[in-house]
Amino acid sequence: MTKLPAQKFTAEIADLFLAAGDDFISASVPELELSFEGIVGDHHAGLTRKSGGREPWYKRGTEMRNERQVSLLSVEEVAIIAERLDVEQIDAGRIGANMLVQGLPQFSQVPPRTQIFFPSGAVLRIDGYNAPCKIAGAALQADYEAREDIELGFVKAAEELRGLVAWVERPGIVRQGDEIKVRVWPQQLYNQRV
């Protein structure tokens, strides 16, 4: 079995976003308040959520733990998605970002269980990769009305670059420009076929 030791990194919060409306589209804000329910006032806040297409093992609408309280993307990966779509830039809020991280290579590959520590004492726990969907692509399509290929093209362009989802392990305030400390736990790569 392949074993990897614990790792520690630092990065920066380049931008923060709040989805204060009835959907996931978010707008840039200078700070966010994190509670055990997620981002205070955000569309995805809550200790629980209803299952959907991402959980085919449950009947749609089943109440379950909300492990998707916070959506994180990276500046570098959003730039690659924009390049793949042949657009100048992508507003991360259009695809539901809450936090835009800068300076952590291969951000979307950060493994589950990783912790992100903020100067205020707030801590996020990574649940895992946030696979791209055509709903986010449709929201992005609205910025490029002349391009009918964006909605479905986003799914392919964002493959392995869509960022991560997390839940709040410890409440606190998060601010634009915060330096974050990232702790990746020791890993053993599981492969039953070995």
How would you describe what is shown here?
- The protein is mostly beta strands and 194 residues long.
- The protein has a single domain (13-177), classed as M1 Pyruvate Kinase, Domain 3.
- It contains 3 helices and 15 strands.
- It has helices at residues 75-85, 134-141, 150-157; strands spanning 3-4, 7-18, 27-29, 31-35, 38-39, 48-50, 63-65, 70-74, 99-102, 115-117, 123-129, 164-170, 172-175, 179-184, 187-188.
- The strands form 4 sheets. It has a 7-stranded mixed beta barrel.
- The longest helix is centred in the middle third of the chain and has 11 residues, at 75-85.
Mean pLDDT across every amino acid position:
95
Which topology does CATH recognise? M1 Pyruvate Kinase, Domain 3
Q: Give, in spatial order, the strands making up the sheet with the most strands.
A: 2-9-8-12-11-10-14
Low-confidence stretches: none
Going by helix content, strand content and strand pairing, the class is mainly beta
Provide key terms for this protein.
194 residues, mainly beta, M1 Pyruvate Kinase, Domain 3, 7-stranded mixed beta barrel, 3-stranded antiparallel beta sheet
